[in-house]
Amino acid sequence: VRIAVPRGAMFKETLDLLDGLGIDTREVRANDRKLLFEEAGLITMRPSDVPTYVEAGAADIGITGKDVLAEQGERNVYELLDLGFGGCTMVFATVAGEDPAAEALRRLGHMRIATKYSRIAHDYFERTGRQVEIVEVKGSVELAPLTGMVDGIVDLTATGTTLRENGLVIREEIMSSTARLIANPVSYRVKAAQIDAVLRQLRAR
Amino acid sequence: VIHPIPSGTRDVLPDELRELRVITDAMRDVFEARAYGEVATPALEYETVLTRGDSAAADPAYRLFDEHGNVLVLRSDMTIPIARVVATRYGSAPTPLRFSYVAHAYRAVKQHRGHPREILQAGIELVGAPGPDGTAEAISVLCAALDAAGLSGYHVGLGDASLFPRVLEREGIPAGARQKILFELASQDMVGLERELEAAGATHLYEIATARGGIEVVPEGEPLSELYGLLEPHVADRVIFDLGLVRTLGYYTGPVFEVYDAAFGSPLGGGGRYDDLLGRFGRSLPAAGWALDVERIHAARLEEGS
User: Fold this and answer.
1) What ipTM was assigned to the predicted interfaces of this complex?
2) On chain A, which terminus has fewer CB atoms closer than 10 Å, C or N?
3) Does A64 contact B at CB distance below 8 Å?
4) Cβ of A74 under 8 Å from any chain B Cβ?
5) Looking at the partner chain, which of A56, A74, A190 has a beta carbon nearest the beta carbon of B260?
């Protein structure tokens, strides 16, 4: 069974988890440039790429955040288990003080929102009956409202520190997210016994 | 000069087409030998006719207007057009009717995921042969077609679209909760499924929804075990039961199946039993059928050989 491992915030806890499954992760821990570890059956990548590799069958199972799965919707993968770690919250935030987004909504009838999660943001504001214009950014979203480019942001936060340091406050919580174990739909059947064995071990943890 | 073509479409050049032809010719021989006459239907149909079959399943990605303002659509599968053919051209013909096809179907794509808009499908429809014998015949032809296509490592995932809804009803789960549970199952979200089952006080059903394996996972008295008993041994060997298998099309009423090969990351095709579909076109007959994606079979065959 080949496993897609997310680098970044979930990396260490994922490797600890794999240790618990009896997979030798020493080489992965020692090497942060190498991506493919044939012997251990691991491939490493950024969390948002995990569903892509698992859907294509380049990995049988993988670990990624619920936020990534929600943003990429309709990936043909099985979501098997909530692993509990990697907890964070998708929030709607604006600059501290009087809420400029509420003001924009009242005065203009719509607001401008910067985010890396355009699908989650779009669905959330539609569901809550507010008209928004989504501005997609790739880097630090916190910058966008500080320059006046947008009225607010939708972003992921674990502790809220970055938001606070940039003078932003959380106005609404959209969803909470934790790490999930996902599986390729073909592997889910063809390698059912191996995958169920992994699931049993992880549940018993 | 470079003249672009739409994303999700492609040209097939002689080398590849020759290889695809080997596969489709071999499958056509199987269809012919089993008396599944090949049919062709128009790629364009009236939207009002196709949506009689199943509004979600027929939800066409491509619509256009003809010179009279009628809405035409590109077919998204061959099952519904053949249901139309049976009702209009074979209104009183003796059954069972056996049809095969090798034809293109058209789907919407999601951006940058490498999905094709145009899919070459080979498949059959067996009309007027009720389950379980009709279903067993359809699966038997499926395996013969896959063997003829040169695949050796394939499996047939076998489930029943009616099984889990029946179990939920028998357990007395209220309709609202049932709908939520089935939504999570269809979304392949087992975390959500477990959550909804827990909310309905039915966590013990989680095991049924996730049961995959041999005949031992099928509860006693289920139609699937009778079907399994009818399969020839070399067909039965290919079967992996999956009690949570849900095909995305809404018209399935009984056993459903999908084809997997470890050499390819997505199902190679699938089908099932749809006993209500023909009635929506005016001739009520039980039916079963399946379609295989020829290009995926080609890719799996190359990978198996490597």
Assistant:
1) 0.91
2) C
3) no
4) yes
5) A190
Q: Suggest the residue from A1, A69, A83, A190 to mutate for an interface test with chain B (most B CBs closer than 10 A).
A: A190
Q: Would you call A79 and B188 a contact, using CB atoms and an 8 Å cutoff?
A: yes
Per-residue pLDDT, averaged over A179-199, amounts to 96
CB-CB under 8 Å, B261 with A79: no
A186 touches chain B (CB under 8 A): yes
* Residue pairs between chains A and B whose CB atoms are closer than 8 Å: 58
Cα–Cα distance measured from residue B159 to residue B156, given in angstroms and rounded to the nearest whole number: 10
Smallest CA-to-CA distance from B151 within B27, B65, B68, B43 is with B27
Q: Is the pLDDT of residue B55 over 90?
A: no
Tell me the three-class secondary structure of chain A, residue by residue: CCEEEECCCCHHHHHHHHHHCCCCCHHHHHCCCCCEECCCCEEEECHHHHHHHHHHCCCCEEEEEHHHHHHHCCCCCEEEEECCCCCEEEEEEEECCCCHHHHHHHHHCCEEEEECCHHHHHHHHHHCCCCEEEEECCCCCCHHHHCCCCCEEEEEECCCHHHHHCCEEEEEEEEEECEEEEECHHHHHHCHHHHHHHHHHHHHC
* Token pair belonging to A41: 């059956």
